[in-house]
Amino acid sequence: MAENDLFKFSIFFSHQNLCYADILPPLEVGARIKVAVLNFLKILSSPSTPAISDLPLVCRKLSNSRLSHGLLTDVSSIFLSHSFCTRSLMRENAAKAFVRVWKVMEICFQILTEEKRVTQRELFYKLLCHSPDYFSSQLQVNRSIQDVVSLLRCSRFSLGIMASSRGLIAGRVILQGPNQEVVDCSACGSSGHPISGDLDYLDKLSVRTDARYIIVVEKHAIFQRLAEDRMFHHIPSILVTAKGYPDIATRFLLHRISRNFPKLPILALVDWNPAGLAILCTFKFGSIGMGLEAYRYACNVKWLGMRGDDLELIPEPSLVPLRPRDLQIAKSLNSSGILPETYREELARMVQSGKRAEIEALYFHGYDFLGKYIAHNIVGANYI
Fold it and tell me: CA–CA separation, 12 vs 19, rounded Å?
């Protein structure tokens, strides 16, 4: 089937240049699932030419991704265009993926009917028990969920699937939940306050702050050090970490705070390596794999550190060679087309040097140096 035909055949609306996933109430999601089933049965039972129809899905590949620049904001995000791929029962290499889509839709319909929510991990074990011939790994479940999002054009959360959050928040911010419980994040100690995976709960939070900056920290240990030193009182700030690659809930809360306080700069502290830059870019632009929802979580994040000029602050033995995985990430970032020129130059410098530097290397100057480094860069507006 030609790409244009797939576009016309797509069950649900997509803008001519932009495909996106809606946040929908359970009844409408249930209705979309029913429409998908009825369309499938209609073609299957056609008296003239019965057939098993392919599933038209928005293509989640680099070649189908673009960077959308905000008209009224400084936020840019990845989005997917209207190029389609298919899941087909008639192709041997795609038959199981085709069945997985229907299996996930079936479970999601049950979840929504029962007014429940599950995490991706819980969904994996349920599918593993009910359909072991089709699901043997979490990755298969995750990809099938994204296939359903692509088919129905509704968000993961609308399907009844919660984010599994690893994120923490600390500093000069007070959160008040819908049932009136109040959390002062400056009083949570070095552990910080865990970010809920319930996006509906996060959306209903009342947020108060007198912070002047939001600092996104790649590593949990660095977050703990800054929270323990109560750096957020020396520099009025909010500290956020996803403990590595950012999960949806942490990105959602960061986006929510930035939307409420649009003048608060968001500054990222990551390792000087391709993985650190990839983490920063996920906060800043979103990801291709979740391109239908990326705009809902993107934030105007600036790169505070570490950067190439910081290498003069650390001893040579602290630099370690780039790993093959680093070079793969660097190649992917370069080909993505999303990097600003200054980021591209930093990445080229990493690759040319063949070295990587971790934030902890700054402890060479003492454990209190990290706070001084952050303060110096913020005061001097040394971020890109």
Answer: 10
Q: Which member of 20, 125, 213, 245 is catalytic?
A: 125
CA distances from 48 to 44, 51, 67, 377 (A): 10, 10, 44, 71
Q: Give CA torsion, residues 373, 378, 382, 384, to 10 deg.
A: 120
**Residue 258 contacts residue 299 (beta carbons within 8 Å):** yes
| Angle in degrees, 0-180, between the axes of helices 95-113 and 120-130, rounded to the nearest 10 | 110
Q: What percent of the chain has pLDDT over 70?
A: 93
Q: What is the pLDDT of residue 65?
A: 73
> Is 134 a residue of the active site?
no
- The two tokens of residue 273 are 């390596």
Q: Which amino acid is at 376?
A: H
Q: pLDDT digits over 67-117, tens only?
A: 776 655 677 777 677 677 778 777 777 889 999 999 999 999 999 999 999
